[in-house]
DNA sequence: ACCTGAACACCGTTCAAGT
DNA sequence: ACCTGAACACCGTTCAAGT
């Protein structure tokens, strides 16, 4: 992070130009047409020239995710948390829909780049600012994760550490501290999970619980709608009658 | 459909053997290690021998999905619809978790095979048997789709028709009728959607609406839990107190 | 030191030559 | 008619030879 955007001349290659060209290529011809060789051809350079700016194809894909994360609107200020989250999730969806390869690529990423962590930190902050507990926020993030992205798992599991085998414990601790400074909201949510039961490695997330959490939210909601004889035909009318969302879903607290 | 399982001798190749070997290979070494050439090697045959049993790699992947769909438990009789659905979704999840490549492959399938349609028909039937309207069932399927599978889209869009450009309308109608006979529950859910607004081609599904439907169910649920000061730490106690699900989620109707 | 052509070890699939 | 080796048009990446 930091050594990008060093192209001097127009026509000169830069990491930014490589990533943008890769995004354009995948947008226009599909992910299966994105090869290092073809990308080089598109940029008018020899294949090996790309390896100056990305270590390999995996890093290219990581960078492409960074590019489109930058296309998600920043949070809108002044809205209640639910509307703010709703708006932002819909913005993320717009981006994912605009790049048909995005879900597939995101799903296969293992390391989270700085740009992705920043987005997740900001997203997490919307719940905390709304007064939700770190605990509920944690589960809410997992439940909505699949909707926003395509991944269902791990908020972060020993992030950025890479091959952690040889990293001494005090260095790991320092790294965690730096993480906490840079991504305070993620840290606030992760800290309790780390304390009870979780090691740093296992990250303290219970996949099965998170899955059932989201599943039960949906099933309970569906049952509610069934009891109320909800119908999608009436949902526009419901919206006109003052409901918040166009789906006409809304329980009276 | 119908011409599988024709292997005569032990050691003879059959579609079934090819598919099972592909599943095993992907399970053991990962999806990126699954190549036609390596699969052939694993089976002790020349690469081109596989093309007698699958048209190409895409069809191989289709078949692999069929294999694991067969691993999902059948519906449990005698349960209320919500418990029945819950149990079956968790069974599907178990299968998907057991085959780490499954989500990725399912997401890239475009044609749905008979086995997948049969599963979806049976799954759909669980809601209808519970008394849910075809309309609500339709949206519920979309909302849960991502949880069960990894796809969010289209329940079915002109299924099995293939290159439909040259198919005469009366043949298409006959095909639809046969579909309805074979998959009555899907048909019951799709019929209303087809009538209002939808052509056969466009399938009458509004992606944006389905997305917002699921999103709103989750957001409303999260808000409810926030109001009640729900915590995951208390959820085991809540379960002991008689709640249905281990997550402790349950609104009092 | 930097750049890059050739080479390596792979792909999925076609096709013509063998039986 | 069936089977299959060689070939085609690709991959991502290494590496040694060039400047």
Question: How are the elements arranged and paired?
Answer:
The structure is a homodimer of 253-residue chains.
Chain A: H1 15-29, H2 36-43, H3 57-69, H4 81-98, H5 102-108, H6 114-129, H7 134-148, H8 169-182, H9 184-195, H10 207-227, H11 235-240
The structure holds a DNA duplex (19 and 19 nucleotides).
How would you concisely characterize the structure shown here?
Chain A contains eleven helices and no strands. Chain A is mostly helical and 253 residues long. In chain A, helix 1 (15-29) crosses helix 3 (57-69), helix 4 (81-98) runs antiparallel to helix 6 and helix 7 (134-148) crosses helix 10.
Task: From the structure above, extract its key features.
homodimer, 253 residues, mainly alpha, 11 helices, 57% helix, 0% strand, disordered N terminus, DNA-binding
């Amino acid at each position: 992070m930091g050594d990008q955007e060093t192209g001097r001349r127009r026509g000169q290659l830069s990491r930014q130009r490589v990533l943008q060209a890769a995004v354009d290529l995948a947008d226009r011809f599909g992910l299966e047409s994105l090869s290092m060789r073809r990308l080089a051809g598109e940029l008018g350079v020899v294949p090996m020239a790309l390896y100056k700016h990305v270590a390999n194809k995996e890093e290219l894909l990581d960078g492409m995710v960074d590019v489109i994360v930058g296309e998600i609107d920043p949070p809108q200020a002044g809205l209640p948390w639910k509307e703010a989250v709703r708006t932002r999730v819909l913005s993320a969806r717009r981006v994912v829909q605009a790049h048909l390869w995005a879900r597939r690529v995101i799903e296969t990423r293992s390391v989270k780049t700085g740009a992705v962590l920043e987005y997740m930190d900001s997203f997490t902050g919307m719940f905390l600012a709304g007064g939700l507990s770190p605990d509920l926020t944690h589960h809410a993030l997992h439940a909505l994760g699949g909707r926003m992205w395509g991944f269902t798992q791990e908020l972060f599991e020993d992030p950025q550490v890479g091959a952690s085998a040889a990293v001494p414990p005090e260095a790991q601790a320092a790294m965690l501290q730096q993480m906490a400074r840079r991504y305070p909201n993620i840290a606030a949510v992760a800290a309790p999970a780390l304390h009870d039961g979780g090691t740093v490695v296992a990250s303290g997330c219970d996949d099965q619980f998170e899955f059932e959490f989201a599943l039960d939210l949906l099933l309970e909601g569906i049952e509610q709608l069934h009891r109320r004889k909800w119908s999608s035909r009436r949902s526009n009318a419901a919206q006109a009658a003052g409901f918040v969302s166009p789906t006409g879903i809304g329980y009276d607290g």
